[in-house]
Amino acid sequence: MEKRVSINDIAKQLGVSITTVSFILNGRAKEKRISDKVVKSVLDLVEQVGYKPNTLARSLRTGKTNIIGLLVEDIANPFFGSIARLIEGNAYRNGYKIIYSSTGNNTAKARELMQMFRDRHVDGYIIVPPEGVESDIQAIMASGKPVVLLDRYLPEVNVDSVMIDNKESAYQATEHLILNGFKQVGLITLNSTQTQMQERLSGYTDAIKHYGMTERIEKISFEDNDAIVDQIKGFLQANPDLDAVLFLTNYLCRMGLKAMKAMQLNIPQDLAVVGFDDYDLFEMYTPTITTVAQPIEQIAENAINLLLSKLEPANTETKFQKMVLPASLIARQSSVKKS
Fold it and tell me: What's the CA gap between 177 and 175, in Å, rounded?
């Protein structure tokens, strides 16, 4: 098997010290006043022999890998995919690379992925946490690595987090339907104790109570798409007097649109619709779909900047921040007032 070229081989062949080669490869040649001639000879030989540094060994020496671990619920989801792309771009501009994975909202899988990131010695973590990972987050923080939670928080863990005002956003979405003349407003949400879902549920129930209306709530378990569509159909069939429905995630809304199409329901004549998390499809759908839009760029920017600040060597900040950003309701044709 071909022997891997080492930094020692480079130094020996050129007759310079290992330290000199190390300084050049780490961009410190000018700082250490190494001549341009030596720099060129080292870089030329590095290219010629295809030398690649052992990143794990270097991380053990320096304590840094310049890698950030990003765990989201589903990288294929437009909301998480857009945030991941923005975080990756910002991190790269600041000298960091991102490795990311999807948890599928599965606790066991999330734990395995976090351990994988720990084995890779990532410098910090941005995590969209599923339920039941509190001890894992605490263990990461106890090891000295910073963590920022995204989209939701863990009430029992003091940790930095970035999210929207979920309760107020759901309240406004429900109120929007009520003020547009809809009298029987139902809710389709996830059967979840996660904080963002509980706060959205609370926003809906507060609005319904404020306007003296009756709650109609369906909680969907994490299942395959066909099962979700069938459950939504069952809820709508069991509540034929509903004239509007609020979906608390964008994929629930997509499955809801599929169910309504199969049932030959017209939007908004038979049933008005408001979704949560904007999505290109909602603007192109006929009729266009009203949604709560999260400020994706602000969420991504705040999350990565917060983590980068914690990665600064001089940072001794121990106070944790809980950033709560406002969302906006984008009113479209699916929630127009009845004539």
Answer: 5
Pairing of strands 185-190, 217-220: parallel
Contacts of 98 (CB under 8 A, 6+ apart): 67, 68, 69, 70, 84, 87, 88, 91, 92
Buried residues in 264-280 as b, exposed as e (16+ CB within 10 A): eeebbeebbbbbbbbbe
Per-residue pLDDT of the chain (339 residues; tens, 9 = 90+): 455 677 888 888 899 998 888 888 766 788 788 999 998 898 888 888 877 666 555 554 556 788 999 999 999 988 999 999 999 999 999 989 999 999 999 999 999 999 999 988 899 999 999 999 999 999 999 999 999 999 999 999 999 999 999 999 999 999 999 999 999 999 999 999 999 999 999 999 999 999 999 999 999 987 788 999 999 999 999 999 999 999 999 999 999 999 999 999 999 999 999 999 998 889 999 999 999 999 999 999 999 999 999 998 776 667 899 999 999 999 999 999 765
CA distances 140 to 3, 106, 191, 203, Å, are 36, 19, 28, 33
Q: Give the residue among 136, 133, 190, 202 at the shortest CA–CA distance from 165.
A: 202
Q: Is 56 exposed, middle or buried (0-12, 13-18, 19+ CB in 10 A)?
A: exposed
Bridge partners of residue 220, in order along the sequence: 190
Supply the CATH classification number for the domain 62-163+296-325: 3.40.50.2300
CATH assignment of 166-294+329-335, given 3.40.1180.10, 3.60.120.10, 3.40.50.261, 3.40.50.2300? 3.40.50.2300
Q: Is the pTM of this model over 0.70?
A: yes
Written as six digits, the tokens of 316 are 């001794």
- The domain locations on the chain are 7-53, 62-163+296-325, 166-294+329-335
